[in-house]
Amino acid sequence: MRRKLVKTVKKPPVERRWFECPNCGTRLAIYDNTAKSSHVYIKCKTCKREIEIRI
Asked: Domain residues for 33?
């Protein structure tokens, strides 16, 4: 019987970061370096302002 060699798929290195509120510095969301985002709005729990997340 022949054994098939399975090639492993190389994954890009993933770096996770926090998206912080530009007004008060509160950590709002975690994202990684493969994320793409625009026109996403989130309300800060601390300063009560609405912030657009652009990654």
From this structure: 16-53
Residue 3 counted as domain residue? no
CB-based contacts of 26: which residues, under 8 Å, 6+ apart?
20, 44, 45, 46, 47
Per the structure, the count of domains in the chain is 1
Q: Any residues with CB less than 8 A from the CB of 47 and at least 6 apart, and which?
A: 21, 23, 24, 26
Task: Tell me, yes or no, whether 10 lies in a domain.
Answer: no
Identify which of 40, 35, 29 has the alpha carbon closest to the alpha carbon of residue 15: 35
Stated pTM of the model? 0.67
Identify whether 24 is part of a domain: yes
pLDDT digits (tens, 9 = 90+) for 2-53: 677 777 887 777 899 999 999 999 999 999 988 898 999 999 999 999 999 9
